[in-house]
Amino acid sequence: MPKTGQTTSYYEGDDGGLEKGVEWPNPRFTDNENGTVTDNLTGLIWLKNANCFGVRNWWEALTDCNGLSAGENLCNSGAVSLNDGSSGGDWRLPNRFELESLLNMEYYQPALSNSVGTAQWTHGDPFDDVQS
After folding, report:
1. Contact partners, residue 9, CB within 8 Å, separation at least 6
2. Of 79, 80, 83, 122, which one has the greatest count of Cβ atoms within 10 A?
3. Going by DSSP bridges, is the β-strand pair 45-47/36-39 parallel, antiparallel, or unpaired?
4. Rounded distance between C-alpha atoms, residue 64 and residue 89, angstroms
5. What is the per-residue pLDDT across 7-41, written as a single tens digit (0 to 9) for each?
6. Rounded to whole angstroms, how far apart are CA atoms 108 and 90?
């Protein structure tokens, strides 16, 4: 988890007293130029196209994720390919905490930082097709 920056303690065990967490990396996100983005805070790797498969239920998302592999046209539009060397079964769906780790509550619609982590996301920085 990132540091909150709070240094004043108002209650025992709050962020100001504990000052836990890790420093926010700069850059926060790195475009790997292969259809993926690395989150330098968590070390997780995400598809660059944030809406690659569109709306899915849980089982459809599992099937899509398990079938991801390099060299294929991934997205519903067929316009994006993955060139990361992965094979079917290498990818997994994030849990809710991993998905929430992308959020930056300083921003809204969407609550996502730019690559550096200093401003709100704009198209392609670092993700494409982000949905609010």
Report:
1. 16, 17
2. 80
3. antiparallel
4. 10
5. 788 888 877 777 776 777 889 899 999 889 999 98
6. 32
